[in-house]
Amino acid sequence: MRAVKKSMSLAAMVGMALMGTVAAAPTASAASGNYIQFSNNSGFLVDTCYQWQGPDGIEAKNYCHTSKPVGQTWKAYFPEEATGATATVTFAMGNGGAKEYLYDLTPDSSHCFQTTGLWPNGGEVLRTNC
Length: 130
What we know:
Blueprint: H1 2-23, E1 35-40, E2 46-53, E3 63-68, E4 73-77, E5 84-91, E6 99-105, E7 111-116, E8 124-128
Parallel strand pairs: 1-7
Antiparallel strand pairs: 1-4, 2-3, 2-5, 5-6, 7-8
């Protein structure tokens, strides 16, 4: 009986240690290679802009990919210190004006999108698997 109690106590300590390891795991960041990807399958030029969330000064890393033509795929990698991002997608629609989509994204995984659509209906943004 004493051996059973000892082994149960040991199992409980191992379980507690493992739970502490999981709770102390760091949050995902660019170090893990997470990104935002777009593939342009629409009939329009596409602009994508990225506003990073995180500590003071991270806004200096904001940028845009502009005038991406049909058939192109591109990525924006999360900065290491980012805690989130807002991606803005704008379709160049000619005389009809621009059509814009906003996405709030977390750095804990990669996010992939595909643009579709033709004139005169406008562009659409679809979430896809990475």
